[in-house]
Specification:
This protein is an alpha/beta fold and 390 residues long. The chain is 35% helix and 19% strand. The chain folds into 2 domains: 140 residues, Aspartate Aminotransferase, domain 1, CATH 3.90.1150.10; 238 residues, 3-Layer(aba) Sandwich (Aspartate Aminotransferase, domain 2). The strands form 4 sheets. It has a 7-stranded mixed beta sheet, with helices on both faces. Strands 1-2-3-15 form a 4-stranded mixed beta sheet.
């Protein structure tokens, strides 16, 4: 039996057949069971911000596992308290702000939905077309893609979708029944499409005027992915709630909800909970990731700006979008065969849309490695013909 047969026989088929069987990672590299090496430019989908087997993360995880692994939330631990303090500090959150530690981005957004419904009971929620906020039922209700939603409808809650960037549509949707507006500063699953800073500022003004919460989903963009700790800070706004996960744990499952000011007190005892959220192992690992990632944020911004310029010059590339090390390369041909050819050439990427390749590499990537990928992309595009439908 091959490993592919083993996988399909024993695991739910929700991801299809895996592309490779990976057995080891070090820095920005991973190896498969045959010994082939790949430059990981997807980073577990914006998760492995420090690459693989980072010594500081390995050491922190080992120390905490040997000390205190898990306690229920009837208790707390030093790593949980310190991580909450650090997250509030990095968020420039006003006095009274608080943190809820959870396990994933979907769980963070589920928690934010509860905050919204406590803020305005039985209220509607507004989200953006092309948004992705997760696959659990509540988070899925905020996710635009019909293929994800339709098999599970009717979904909970009352959600209205408006086109991103359309201020007239947003103004019309934000009536007195709206509990919250959910936005991503950069719509990652839509193909890495940033929202204009002026739009985000207008969204902040409108939600404040209409008494609705502004929830910013930083699950994919947070923890420094854009060269700043949060992507929304470039627009100089202060939301009511921020959700994050992915890069925060550098590969260890953890997420967070940050309630700014009064939003932090919307949920009372017994109204929410999580068994594993903020446990000592997760919190200690996240602290190590924060300490190691923060000094790299300048590099993330500089490398990303340089790399986007290099990618724009590749024949067959029609647009390069993104900020920092969250990049989409729009091409003039279908992206799936390009992604497969890049994998065969030793580069892990993601065909995030039918005509775009997504890059979300670790922050430790260097210019030489980025340049090698750019050359490989040019070679692959030179071998795969554009089509009329691309």
């Amino acid at each position: 039996m091959t490993w592919q047969d083993d996988y399909t026989a024993r695991l739910f088929g929700i991801f299809g057949v895996p592309l490779r069987l990976l057995v080891r990672g070090e820095g920005p590299w991973v190896w498969d069971e045959s010994g082939n090496r790949y430059l990981d430019l997807l980073g577990g989908i914006a998760v492995n911000v420090l690459g693989h087997a980072h010594p500081d993360v390995v050491a922190a995880l080992g120390r905490q596992a040997a000390t205190l692994g898990h306690v229920s939330n009837f208790f707390t631990s030093p790593p949980q308290l310190e991580l909450a303090r650090r997250l509030l500090e990095l968020s420039d959150a006003p006095p009274g702000s608080k943190v809820l530690l959870v396990n994933s981005g979907s769980e963070a957004n589920e928690s934010a939905i509860k905050l919204a419904l406590r803020h305005r009971p039985r209220g509607r929620i507004v989200a953006l077309e092309s948004a992705f906020h997760g696959r659990t039922l509540g988070a899925l209700s905020l996710t635009w893609k019909p293929a994800y939603r339709e098999p599970f409808e009717p979904l909970p809650g009352r959600v209205t979708f408006v086109p991103p960037g359309d201020l007239n549509a947003l103004d019309a949707a934000l009536d007195g029944e709206v509990a919250a507006l959910f936005v991503e500063a950069i719509q990652g699953e839509a193909g890495v499409r940033p929202l204009d800073a002026a739009y985000l500022r207008a969204a902040r003004t409108l939600t404040h005027e209409r008494g609705a919460l502004l929830v910013v989903d930083e699950v994919q963009t947070g923890a420094g992915r854009t060269g700043e700790w949060f992507a929304h800070t470039a627009a100089r706004i202060v939301p009511d709630v921020v959700t994050m996960a992915k890069g925060l744990g550098g590969g260890f499952p953890i997420g967070a909800v940050i309630g700014y000011g009064p939003a932090a007190d919307l949920l009372g005892p017994g109204q929410h909970g999580t068994t594993f959220g903020g446990n000592p192992l997760a919190a200690a690992t996240a602290l190590a990731v924060v300490d190691a990632a923060l000094p790299l944020l300048g590099h993330v911004g500089e490398l990303g700006a340089w790399w986007r310029g290099e990618l724009e010059r590749v024949p067959g590339v029609v647009e390069v979008r993104g900020r920092g090390l969250l990049i989409a390369v729009e091409i003039d041909r279908p992206s799936a065969p390009v992604q497969r050819a890049l994998l065969d050439a030793g580069y892990i990427t993601n065909n995030v849309t039918p005509t775009a390749i997504r890059l979300a590499p670790p922050y430790i990537l260097d210019r030489e490695q980025a340049a090698a990928f750019t050359s490989a992309l040019a070679a692959v595009l030179g071998q795969i013909e554009p089509t009329a439908t691309a």
